[in-house]
Records
---
Amino acid sequence: MALKYKLILASGSPRRVDLLNQAGIEPSRLMPMDIDEAPKKSEHPRSLARRLSTEKAEAALAAIKGDMTWKGSYILAADTVVAVGRRILGKAEFADEASASLYLLSGRSHWVYTGVCLITPDRKVRQKIVETKVRFKRLSGFEIENYLASGQWRGKAGAYGIQGLAGTFVQKMVGSYTNVVGLPLYETILLLTGEGFDVHSRWPEA
Ligand SMILES: Cc1cn([C@H]2C[C@H](O)[C@@H](COP(=O)(O)OP(=O)(O)OP(=O)(O)O)O2)c(=O)[nH]c1=O
């Protein structure tokens, strides 16, 4: 898809850039937004994905405020959350946290929620929250140790990346694969083309 517009990707995730490129879209600018990603007390994982994707897009909009170079640009942001039931499995900082996450995912199903938020040049907000159900096989201690040694858990929600070695753990998946990797392409294109989205609010012109 050849985008006629300037697109700011409010992200530092190399996966999101790759996925957009896969769809034929080259962001004009990458703006990683450093926001507090801690869930609120008893916040549902779906609500968290919605809130954080909105906050990332909003932060990018605030950052370009008054800069005429970016007038007329779209802003795209996403947030991926992994959860077992309502229990949110964040990005592990250390191997022991990653290990705990993998033991929890072993032999059961979990949900991956990605919130995608697009702000249009006329500052309308288009948003989608996409859900994928993933079932992991039962993982042996050896498989977990081996995975931890690969380092592929770093910087990823739930401490795994389906696009790498952890792809071999997946027994079953229902829903979008690209959603799990960090940006659901089908829905993102719908947002960009202006079809099938939820309008929540409108922000003033940057
Ligand atoms: C579950 C899963 C997540 N991930 C990644 C996607 C996201 O980069 C990351 C989830 O963290 P996010 O907070 O959604 O994104 P991020 O901090 O990496 O990037 P940014 O906020 O700047 O956009 O986990 C995979 O790459 N593969 C997977 O299978």
---
Amino acid sequence: MQIDKPVRLILDDGTIFEGRSFGAESASAGEVVFSTAMVGYPESLTDPSYLGQILVVTFPLVGNYGVPDNTFTDGISNFYESERIQVNGLIISDYSHEYSHWNAKKSLGEWLKENNVPGIYGIDTRELTKLLREKGSMKGKIVFKDENEIEFLDPNIENQVALASCKEVITYGSGKKKVVLVDCGVKHNIIRCLLKRDITLIRVPWDYDFNQLEWDGLFISNGPGNPDFCEATVQNIRTAMQGDKPICGICMGNQLLSKAGGATIYKLKYGHRSHNQPVKMVNSTRCFITSQNHGFAVSNSSLGADWEPLFINLNDGTNEGIKHKTKPFFSAQFHPEAASGPTDTDFLFDMFFEKL
Ligand SMILES: NC(=O)CC[C@H](N)C(=O)O
């Protein structure tokens, strides 16, 4: 039986958790956040929205189904949400050194090592999560030697979107309707979901002036970090909003569309990261169980006169989407593309497509 190397997670408040290493033996720092999703670690770890964060998975056993291969079709990953692992570290309770799945090509530990990302198991993730719920998301660092091995890092004071976004315009498909996708760190399943419809997709960098292009609809992606760094995107959306063409956004996209409409954004204490967030569609009795991963939220009370909330979170009453009262503009704070998580709200892609 192998004995894995001891490793520590040190939080900003001085709390220390000791565990064993199953990933890269390299120190790392970031914002420590927790997800209560029970499955989906390949998708979560490659979701660019997690850039700069150390992810705590509360489900007690992780790694038992291994990791799929990183293969691509027409520039889109077949099984991942981006080209690589995006988190700065992974914290779990029990690691399954054995894995078994028809699609597995390697173990989670091997994959973390390949990507130079540390992973810790043997942590009391319940205690850690309770702490993060009480004190809020915190800065943390993973160290192998002494605690000065690396500095704390706050990803929310840097422009993470600029790091996650594509650097040039990429076109996919040859469908009838032209849709501009503003890439703030887009999950590949948003691209897959859009391309299932009769769409030509023009993926552009986060600060690209897409108003100079010809398009039928505008889609604003998810993305990491603090939306305040995306003023360039907000300005471009504002210009697009002078017209009447459909605009849709997901997660960061909800926050940027809201900002373009004049609303304000604030940071949630510990965010929403799970597969079972209940949201209610406003002015209806319809509820959906949604996949979520966000730390910031739109202030409902700050929405301008032309806007109204589209969805509300039933756990805490926070905003989960907005809608323009007269124009075809709407967005969701949760993830209708899932990957991973429930696909119940996939109809939002149809709602957008029908307006094109
Ligand atoms: N998934 C996302 O797009 C997250 C948006 C933003 N970075 C937040 O944490 O709120």
---
Amino acid sequence: MVAGGSASARAQEARRCERELREQLRAAQREARRWEAASEGERRVAAQLLLFTRRGWRLLVDRRWPGTRSANVDMLLVGPGGVFVIDVKNWQAAPEAADGHLTAGPQRRDGEIGKLLAVTRVAEGAVASLGMSPVAVQPLMVFAGRSVDDRLGRVRLLGEREVAPALMAERTRIPAAGVRAIADHLEAVFPAYEGSSVRPGAGDGPEAAPADPAAPAGDDALFDVGGLGEAAVEAARRGPVEQWMTFLHPDQVALVRRNWSGPARVSGPAGTGKTVVALHRAAHLAQRTTGRILYVTFASNLPRVQNTFLRTMSPAVADRVEFRSLHSWAQRFLDERHIPHHLHGDRAEDAFSRAWVRRGRQSPLSSLDPSPRYWHEEIDCVIKGRGITRFEEYATLRRHRRRTNLRRPHREAVWALYEEYERVRTERGVHDFNDILSLALAEARARPGRNPYAAVIADEVQDLTLVGVRLLHALVGDAPNGLLLVGDGQQAVYPGGFRLSDAGIDVRGDRGQVLRTNYRNAKEILDAALTVVAEDAFDDIDGTRTAGLREVELTYHDGQVTRSVSRTPAEHDAALLAALRARGPRSWPDSAVLCRSKREIGHYRRLFAQAGIPLCSLERYDGHPVEAVKLGSYRRAKGLEFKHVYLPDHTSPPLPPCADQEIAEEREELFRTQLFVAMTRARDTLWLGSVTTPRGTAPARR
Ligand SMILES: Nc1ncnc2c1ncn2[C@@H]1O[C@H](COP(=O)(O)OP(=O)(O)OP(=O)(O)O)[C@@H](O)[C@H]1O
């Protein structure tokens, strides 16, 4: 078709839609006119809403508020855009929302907002039993005879003209078939109000309105409420992975809505919906409070992706949830508090190299491991990461997830190296990442009254250091619903570790919750991944020792693991390209190629450019669907997921020589954990490439 032709087809279609809308609105107006006892203004609002019943939505009018004797709910509107709890106002004076208050003329009307919020909570509770997240329930106050489009906290304030376009613009959250089941359920929970003053006239009342002819035939008998979540999940499975969820498991919704009396933790194996719960909770808390919510992770790319998800899911509150990597947040925090700091990773690194030459290379440390890397990690993750400042503390410290048993002379040598590093670093006037967190912690503790958050959520908490967790705790203390830590010790991809008890955080009892159903990985994929870490028991941050091969419940869906063994690197790369091409370009936006090192990433970037396969670096991926294969490291893939994952050359890389067997084993184990994380990013298919020719005997590749 020529360009003009397609434009005219679009114009024709737009005219058809407009005609249809006009007809539907006229019918809705006729229907609203038959409402007895409603004022003219209320009828006009009703007409706007009845319009939606002609498009497959359901409107419940004048319902009893359960648990009260005589209170009523004006309207509940259920449609693809969610559940709307509606209060219609026909006020003499214009409403005004300012400084967190609703006024009309000289009068404060905050009580009306409070009442609407209270009944919204009842509706949330009602749909939670169907697995529907509270983020899909929205309170609306609609003003007859007024033009308004405003917001007061969670409540949207709309005039009679604004309400229909606003609802029309809502993104689809509930599959068409689910609308009826939810409405039926709400109809039972909120019974018809006996003393109703607004009644639809006889005959074709709003609930009798014909369904949208475009919607799939809704046969009540065929549709059971229990299957609602499943239907939604199936629809999501077909869409891009970025699609967000409205339906969770009722147990997950219970965690989202739970009232915790202090800090809480949600843990569980890979793919069990921890992030989903954390994001829905962030939105839920933002709906419940007027304060800000801080949502942090260790990785710098993940906050962007999570921000995009939350914006799609719950745009109304998105501005009050701040997604940050912990280090970038801490730097800004120091700026705001005018605390001088000078983060310079390279110069700090250089200071360490200098210290190693002076105090490490000739010390007993090099007989255990001659490469400085292990000792740098010791200072980073064990000493500074845990805020150790005195040798006596370090001398007897239990070094979590460090296998080598360092005796006193080694610890003394590490301490001497640490002190030298600190001396050189200070001399150069630079800070490392740990210093930034320590400075921020000191400031947060010194002036706790100025900490600005109603709640803090840390995702992938196992990757944070003890000082990082203490810092987050200092921001909210033990306030109810203040701190939520989300993560899984089995996915700790950095050396070292800590216990929550070291941070003075107590999550015993119902404040420590575990999710157990994997919703992401096909069975074949999870089995392959668990085989990698089967022998690696690990200590979780609450101190529990857990076997590597964990019991996980699976939600069944088909999947495939392909192992491709090549003789040479060139053959291997050809096999990778062939696998990507065989699945076809339409699969590429949902595919990721994950690598062990930066060098490999560079290699595959060049290879894909030559092959004409579009790429998007995980560093730049922000959670919006992109027409490209994602490329990044195992660590950068943390917290993300893809339908298809390709792991080229995935077997353990040759590790640097090391005399100490335990250090060598620790490195191997860390690599296995990273590989496990990379493998569990795959939802439907996993491609595992390997090369049999020993390195150095094949033509050099990278
Ligand atoms: N109740 C549910 N029904 C269906 N799918 C779900 C449900 N809960 C979560 N999911 C899906 O499961 C996948 C994994 O969820 P999520 O990323 O939150 O898991 P996670 O525990 O944070 O994983 P990881 O620790 O591996 O990063 C996502 O695709 C999510 O949409």
---
Amino acid sequence: MTNQKESNAIIEIEDLDFYYNQTKALKNVSLDINKNEVFAFIGPSGCGKTTLLRVLNRMNDLIPKTRVVGKVQIEGHDIYDPNVDVVQLRKSVGTVFQKPNPFPISIFDNVAYGPKAHGIKNKKELMEIVEESLRQAALWDEVKDRLNDSATGLSGGQQQRLCIARVMAVKPEIILMDEPTSALDPIATLKVEELINELKQNYTVVIVTHNMEQAARVSDKTALFLNGSIIETNETNQLFTNPKEQETEDYITGKFG
Ligand SMILES: Nc1ncnc2c1ncn2[C@@H]1O[C@H](COP(=O)(O)OP(=O)(O)OP(=O)(O)O)[C@@H](O)[C@H]1O
């Protein structure tokens, strides 16, 4: 087992076990993720990638009978401390889901939704946030003349970039992406991948992907999961070209998974 410890970490996970009722879905996971890094979780179906992603903004709290053992720190704070404000946590750790899930309201209102919920009422300020977020999501030029149209009229790829803009509008530190392109065609996928490359200038991105080529294209570091454990964490190009563990080599050469 190879786990990595570094000092510039924005996310620090130490000896984490995660249970769904009696089932242990994550076992003794330790991992550091650095600021402004794109970090990919790969591994076969059911190995715990999504579970770990959801640990990072306490989305698993919504599932009854789940239990976290161990330490998860973000920016030096234990996010499982009972005093943590979970709404604030989810503001600073946003999520983009597998299927684009815009609200059935206008493009503008989708992006303004989060800032409004966090108390911003000034129209000019909201307009600035909406424009900036849509620009950052590489969608502004495509939608600037139809901001009042329903978001459901956008293509799947545009909807996913809108969901990314929606997350960015509340100015998170970290963006979690759970298979963000699996419902998209290759061109829309490419656009989202290009966007991920841009995002790391301002954000830390953690991405779950089934697609090893995608991990290789977009991420700086990768962790391979098997059966709830991390087998290897490494620089992405090292992990794919010169894996340290036999199981990594077997996985990336398609011997299982
Ligand atoms: N809500 C849940 N209740 C009970 N068990 C769950 C729940 N969600 C996931 N699990 C179990 O936890 C384990 C890890 O699942 P998880 O979804 O994290 O894997 P994954 O690597 O993301 O898989 P995939 O690539 O198929 O999405 C699996 O055995 C799964 O069946």
